[in-house]
Amino acid sequence: MKRILTFVLTLLLVSIFIDAQDTIVNRFLKNWKIVDMFGTVDTIATDTVHLNFQHKNYIDNFSIANSYNGNLGSPIQSKIFADRPVSSGFIFAEPYYPYLQTINSTRFYNTKTPFSTLKYSIGGTNNRESDDVGFLFTANANKNLNFGALLDYIYARGEYKSQSVKRFAGSLFGSYIGKKYSASGVISTNSLSNLENGGITDISYILNPPYGYESPENIPTRIGVAAQSSFKQFQLHFNQQYSLGFEREVKKVKDSIVTEFVPVTRFIHTLQIDNFQKRYFENSPERTFYKNTYYTQTNDTAALQRVSNRFAVNLAEEFNKWMRFGLTAYIHNDIERLVFSKDSLLNDSILTNVKIGGVLSKELGQKFTYRISGEVGLVGYKAGDVLLSGVVGTKFRLWKDTIALKATAFSSTEEPDFYLQQYESNHFKWKNSFSKLFKTHIGGTFAIPTKQLSLDAAIENLSGQVYFDTLAMPVQHNGSVQLLSLKLKKDFRFGRFGLDNTIVYQESLNDEVLPLPRLILFHNLFYTDKWFKVLRIQAGAYVRYHTSYYAPSYMPATGQFYNQRTMKIGNYPVMSVYVNAHLRRTRFFAEYYHLNELFMKGNYYSMPNYPINPATFNMGLTWNFYD
What we know:
The radius of gyration is 26 Å and the shape is globular. The protein has 4 helices and 35 strands. β7 (130-140) and β8 form a beta hairpin. The chain has one domain (2-625): TonB-dependent receptor, beta-barrel domain (Maltoporin, Chain A). The strands form 7 sheets. The chain has a 22-stranded antiparallel β-barrel. Strands 2-1-5 form a 3-stranded antiparallel beta sheet, with no helix packed on it. By secondary structure, it is mainly beta. The protein has helices at residues 2-21, 58-62, 204-207, 418-421; strands at 29-34, 41-44, 66-68, 76-78, 108-111, 115-123, 130-140, 145-156, 165-177, 181-195, 227-253, 256-282, 298-315, 326-342, 345-362, 369-380, 386-398, 401-414, 422-424, 429-431, 437-448, 453-463, 466-468, 474-476, 480-494, 497-508, 519-531, 535-546, 553-555, 560-562, 574-583, 586-593, 605-607, 610-611, 616-625.
């Protein structure tokens, strides 16, 4: 701990020295994300806000309520249905979603000066620390061309036995923005490995630990052999666009005319290559924890290799001043190779999919926007799949406030993922003939940004839902499951004090198929100020809570969350206190997580047999460089 404190203080002192030498320079930095296979850009703010910096870790940044193994980097599932990721086509990737560096998480930049960020965080008790180190660099070769690199490494031993996690993610990214031609691309790799302990053997070790078992690392766990899961993903994503159009006069300056290029038609191509691999290994077969063990060795592998191409033609919205709309037509092709193996047994399948679709949209301006899209699968494994979706939004002034309204709807018919239909390993094997899944969703958002108020509401119907039952086997529900969800977010400011509030209500009409906590609360009370004209301070406390329910448990051999009806989780608050500091280029936080464990009795489980960490001290910093 002395080494860490010395490191932090040194960085702060150096940062103060550098900032003292800094002059006011017009530094230009923009960043954005690519949000779909068309290369659509969504501009986002640069991550330099000091408020709530302690929540930038991968778990808290994913959702305000999560099921996970209790350790940073372990498989995770949000307890809020709306926060769960859309299927990637490889079910074994979903529990690792928040940790993956892919096109969905890549930020692209345009800057007049090289920009880099160094981050470091540490937490946990003595000799059980969790470390996260990251580095970002980006620079422009000229005003159009940018490139960059991102590296991130996690090593977390965990507070309980056989729980350690290693994770490495890296990416190279770049973008070119020209008048007629633009392109963006990323090459990323992800590697995660985590030991599997099956959870602790008895819940009494948390509520009333017997003598000698007060320390989490001494609590016995349910898997008695050395077991390890690993996940790897490689992705290449490249989008390019070429526009045909004309020059339009913008204004006259003295004797010259300033013009802008107005695109009329865009030709878009997107290439994406994905390579997923999931492995589960035991040094000797575990026969007590699992109901079935079929072979004398456990070395299970499942993989998916996919090449996707999308070609699109877009009638641009910008060229028509009087009747603004954009129209896009596209064709999409996937070629997939799926492999699962057990020792000498190898199953290899090649699947192809071809689908066509179109989008009608108006996304410029704020008074009225819409995006209506549809696609249908023509050939291959997902022939007959249909997706229809629509988003309509508007903003208007009401007295001194801005009101934002948005309505969303979609209906989809889709084939279940291949590995839900067929899979074989040492402890699990299945061969199913599930019918297509049918989903409908209707939702809306009411927001007053000036009042820091938003309300989201949605109704969903899930027909033919596939889930993992109490035996951790995939089954299909013969009927429909309805889901109602409400999310209210309201932040208050009273001078230098603030109170952030998020309330989520979910009602699943069949909790044996889709179990969810009905009520989830997050409250954050803090004080913030600026000291010595340069140092921004935030000090506060926050609490997380959800009602009790039969939370899904976790199956190590498949890496999937499955339903259970023997143990309820919840009705236990987790309170933490923290301090954030922001000194120009440097942000720092110190947090005492799960403070109430020191004085409050309770079963603090994330999910059955998997407790969260006891009271621990965490801290971290980021340091930005603009030259």
